[in-house]
Amino acid sequence: MAEARASAARRYLEIVHTLARREFLVRYRGNLFGALTAVLVPLLFLLTYTFVFSTLVPVRLHAGATRTDYAFFFFAGLVGWTLFAETTGRAPRLFTSQAHFVRKTLFPVSALPVASSLTAFYHSLLWLGVFAAARVLAGGPLSGSLLAAPALLALLALFTAGIALVVAALGAFVRDLAEWIGPVLSVGLFVSPILYPAERIASVAPWLVTLNPLSPLIEGLRGALLDGTLPDATALASLVLWPAAALGAGILVHRRFRPLLADVL
User: What is the dihedral of CA 220, 73, 193, 228, to 10 degrees?
Assistant: First the structure.
């Protein structure tokens, strides 16, 4: 029994890896800049928001903070946010756009949103490289805690996979969910510690920080990238519990709706 489960798990992971690799390669095939698009588009987003929130509507990080300081602050948060938003934004149409997989009774449909999250994780690793290079070019310090960033991104990818499982299953039945997910993510950007510190949000609405599962994940990543700090025991518990809860919810919702998917697609 244990051997059969291990074999099934290996097969599932192989399918996820194959789907993620194919998605990563196909998405940028034929593009003018190829895979660099995965970096250039968010970079444009970064430059635009940095200008707005460091110049037009300046966000005060600390006394003496410069525009460059804010750019790296936002950059560190954007690495994690892009992973989450990219996957979640595509999730509502994931099953409907790949109905041929859904109709295959032996195909593990849950692999589709999980693979999508894995693809976004690959992109986030590219962003880590860009962040490190930009930090060095700007003369900023690179701490050894940077080595923990991939593990923190992996936890965020697991959390995202759980959310994507829920959103993908619901999106197959609630077709206008695809229209709502964009505005919801826009709100999520502004109520998460991406554009400004978590302390700024907590000073206005502490419950937004407490109830937002992205807060500890983003703050943990930012600490590793900018401050040279690693999560303490309390923060680490949140970093593990939120992905576990999201995956648990995703698995439950998927099992509930999986038998009905083929009938609605």
Answer: 20
Helices (H), the chain: 2-27, 37-51, 67-90, 94-97, 99-102, 111-137, 149-173, 177-191, 198-204, 206-211, 214-222, 233-264
Cα 51 from Cα 230, distance rounded (Å): 29
Question: Which tokens go with 201?
Answer: 């949000």
Q: Please state, in angstroms and rounded to a whole number, the distance separating the CA atoms of residues 252 and 265.
A: 20
- Per-residue pLDDT tens over the stretch 115-138: 999 999 998 998 888 888 888 888
Tell me, yes or no, whether 115 lies in a domain.
yes
53 inside domain: yes
188 closest CA partner among 154, 206, 166, 213: 213
CB count in 10 Å sphere of residue 106: 4
Full domain range(s) for residue 90 = 18-264
Q: Are 72 and 140 in contact (CB under 8 A)?
A: yes
The verdict on residue 252 lying in a domain is: yes
pLDDT in the model for residue 83 = 94
Task: Render pLDDT for 230-260 as a digit per residue (tens, 0 to 9).
Answer: 888 888 888 999 999 999 999 999 999 888 8
Query: What is the spatial distance between Cα 91 and Cα 164, in angstroms, rounded to a whole number?
Result: 6
Q: Closest Cα to residue 247, out of 164, 171, 150?
A: 164
Residue 104 lies in a domain: yes
Domain count, the chain: 1
* Cα 146 from Cα 216, distance rounded (Å): 17
Nearest to 86 by CA among 144, 153, 15, 8: 153
